[in-house]
Amino acid sequence: MKPLEGKVAIVTGGSRGIGAAIAKELARKGAQVAINYQSNVESADAVIKAIEEEGGTSYAIKADVSDANDIQQFIGSVKERFGKIDILVNNAGITRDKTFRNLSEEEWNEVIDVNLNSVYRTTSVVINEMLEQKYGRIINISSIIGQAGGFGQTNYAASKAGMIGFTKSLALETAKNGITVNAVCPGFIATEMVSAMPEKVLDSIVSKVPMRRLGEVDEIAEAVVYLATANYITGQTINVNGGLYM
């Protein structure tokens, strides 16, 4: 029997990059997986197809994590389809990088809304059911930038640091009810966004990583599965960064 057999997982932003890798790995471990996408239905369909080709069960729906009604409808449809929710992976995120003096209030609010406020929205919809069933795994995908900061990323760093504080506080509130709440902080991972950086910038980043390479999306997915299957780990921040931040 697979370790997540019979479990139902939601992965926000699961149509590409780290989110897609997480969705696929959860499915490989036996979970039924639901993902949302905002606009790229082709990418979402590709994830669903990949999961189903390996014998898994998955489901995708168009939903904007910055819209409370979309979140309600998305999670409601997952409950209707699969009957419950056991695992929530808050992965959806965006960047709007600018130095602070050039950062508009709109760009600040957009990143906070998608990256941090969405964590409140999704978790608030699933938490009561998890408390009632005395089981739940909430895993928030933060970032090394939320720990160490990043030039031109005050909005992104604030949102990702906020996720860590949210994680620790909710873990304290829910531990006695069989719910674990943890965060994963990726370093620089070989996604489309990172790979699009100028070669000199990438070389500079890699030179500072003790392992001398970028991380792989599957390495983040492995950490998520570990937390999804662990029973006595909560309120923790798991760093997957090749030793760049310790």
From TrEMBL:
GO terms for molecular function: 3-oxoacyl-[acyl-carrier-protein] reductase (NADPH) activity. Its EC number is 1.1.1.100. It catalyses: a (3R)-hydroxyacyl-[ACP] + NADP(+) = a 3-oxoacyl-[ACP] + NADPH + H(+). Residues 7-187 form the Ketoreductase domain. SUPFAM superfamilies: NAD(P)-binding Rossmann-fold domains. Pathway: Lipid metabolism; fatty acid biosynthesis. The keyword Lipid biosynthesis applies. SMART domains: PKS_KR. Keywords: Fatty acid biosynthesis, Fatty acid metabolism, Lipid biosynthesis, Lipid metabolism, NADP, Oxidoreductase. Signal peptide: none annotated. The keyword Cell cycle does not apply. Pfam families: adh_short. NCBIfam families: 3oxo_ACP_reduc (TIGR01830), AcAcCoA_reduct (TIGR01829), PRK07231.1 (NF005559), PRK12824.1 (NF009464), PRK12826.1-2 (NF009466). Homotetramer. Belongs to the short-chain dehydrogenases/reductases (SDR) family. Catalyzes the NADPH-dependent reduction of beta-ketoacyl-ACP substrates to beta-hydroxyacyl-ACP products, the first reductive step in the elongation cycle of fatty acid biosynthesis. This is 3-oxoacyl-[acyl-carrier-protein] reductase. It comes from Sporosarcina soli. The gene is fabG.
